[in-house]
Amino acid sequence: MGALSDLRVLDLTQVLAGPYCTMLLADMGADVVKVERPGGDMIRSNPPFVDDPDEEAYGGYFQSVNRGKRSIELNLGDEDDREDFLSLVEKADVVVENYRAGTMEKYDLGYETLTEYNEDLIYSSIRGFGDPRTGETYRQGQPSFDLIAQALGGVMETTGQPDGPPTKTGPGVGDLFTATLNCIGILAAVHHRDRTGEGQYVDTAMYDSMLSFTERAIYQQSYTGEAPTRRGNSHPTLFPYNAFETADGYAVIAAFNDRHWTELCEVMGREELAEEYPTTADRLEHRELLRDEIADWTLRQTNDDLVGKLEGRVPAAPVQTTEEIFDDEHVHARDMLVPVEQPGADTAVEIAGNPIKMSETEPKPRGRAPLLDEHREEILGEEAETTADD
């Protein structure tokens, strides 16, 4: 049993932010019912596939963030399907959706309507610019995706090389960080309801989340009056804290405190640098000169040599490829690669495990992602049985 095994979640989300949020809940044991529009979540057909997209039920994108859920296909514009949905709401703990503001109201299924059917319901939304209920702005109703959130929220302006263009992060942090914050909000609301019996509305906006994500840029602007911009892999107030090219790749070194700096200089055979630049202020003032000195040394080391020489003395690590991650014993020991069935393929696939570890109620992927409408009879049958029992 998971920590949330007594929680029923109706998941009306699609693409990435919403599904990732409800995936976290499912990994922790919640019964997540994915309520899909006719035709299903638009990312079911997104690659990659193991072999043949015509044979496989969905691609890796959908599999990764919808594992362990149950699926029912409902057209909320159809009266019968709408009634089926409302019957699910009556017994649900949480409803999560990530439509544009006002979409659920078009079906007369907004928060206020749903609480008429379930007065202690927790209703959660993930939107690009939030919901008018929690702060009305002119942006609400505009479409938003990860790229837009990263652009508006300062992530792209502070990511990339100093002489290069604004750059998005590789992972979709506009979606994933927002989703994680929304999950925290839902769990806080569940805790509040357990204490008071009171449900509530939870709202997390992608733009807002990216401002929280770029907290360093916000306080730098406030304290200095200067707009932070791209610094490559370096840190504005710590040095050395950077990536360096090696003989066979790249490695990162984080030797910004005085002790680690002294250790680094000893390993490099450049003890005089530690004596000449003993303080953080000294190192920041001469960071370009010192970076060249370190870079000259790292180019003469392989990744293994560099990490081996610094291990136990200075924080350092290779910049790994995904292939190297798959070969890392640590990753397997931590159950961070999980095999699941891929419908339509002859082999299992691996998806990222859950990084939340708990001693008694271990979060973990609880099976593959569902086929579209796979659990209709099971879900509606459960509701019919519950109604009869009542």
Description:
With 390 residues, the protein is an alpha/beta fold. It has two domains: 8-213 and 331-389, Rossmann fold, CATH 3.40.50; 241-245 and 250-318, formyl-coa transferase, domain 3 (2-Layer Sandwich), CATH 3.30.1540. The chain has helices at residues 17-27, 60-66, 79-90, 103-106, 111-117, 146-152, 173-196, 206-213, 215-224, 258-268, 271-276, 280-285, 287-298, 303-310, 322-327, 329-333, 376-389; strands spanning 8-11, 31-36, 70-73, 94-97, 122-127, 201-205, 241-245, 250-254, 316-318, 337-340, 349-352. A hairpin with an 8-residue loop joins β10 (337-340) and β11.
Rg is 25 Å
Assign the structural class, choosing from mainly alpha, mainly beta, alpha/beta, alpha+beta, or little secondary structure. alpha/beta
How many strand units?
Answer: 11
In whole angstroms, how far apart are the ends? 26 Å
The low-confidence parts are none
Q: What's the CATH H-level homologous superfamily of the largest domain?
A: Crotonobetainyl-coa:carnitine coa-transferase, domain 1
Largest sheet: 6 strands, parallel
Mean pLDDT metric: 95
Number of domains in the coordinates? 2
Listing every helix as H and every strand as E from the N terminus to the C terminus, the arrangement reads EHEHEHEHHEHHEHHEEHHHHHEHHEEH
Shape: elongated
Helix content: 40-55%
Q: Could you say what the CATH architecture of the largest domain is?
A: 3-Layer(aba) Sandwich
Strand order of the largest sheet: 3-2-1-4-5-6
Our count of helices gives 17
Q: Bin the strand percentage.
A: 5-15%
Q: CATH top level of the largest domain?
A: Alpha Beta
CATH topology of the largest domain, which one?
Rossmann fold
